[in-house]
Amino acid sequence: MPRVLIVDDHATFRATARRLFEAEGYEVVGEAEDGASALEAVARLSPDVVLLDIQLPDMDGFEVSRRLCVNGVSPQIVLTSSRDASEFGDLVGVCGSRGFIPKGELSGGRLAALLE
Question: Of 41, 58, 100, 111, which residue has the fewest beta carbons closer than 10 angstroms?
Fold first, then answer.
């Protein structure tokens, strides 16, 4: 199973996502609450997958994704938000992410489908 880093500014969402993924056999290697700590955590933990909230306090998830993809050797990035993907236009498709999962539909199965 992939090693996952969860990035979200809400501790309750991070805890819920951690429980959900661990119950489905994923290894959650860490959590981050903003873009800067996400970039640091990726460098330190080398996750296979980053579940990345789009709305973060210091920079949006699109910018974090672009920065992670700059060297061409980045983890697989899956964006998430409580908002609908249609509200972000083409940004989901051009920032280097594998795709988008609405927070209300988050599951190990949805994650696995995007990673195939």
Answer: 58
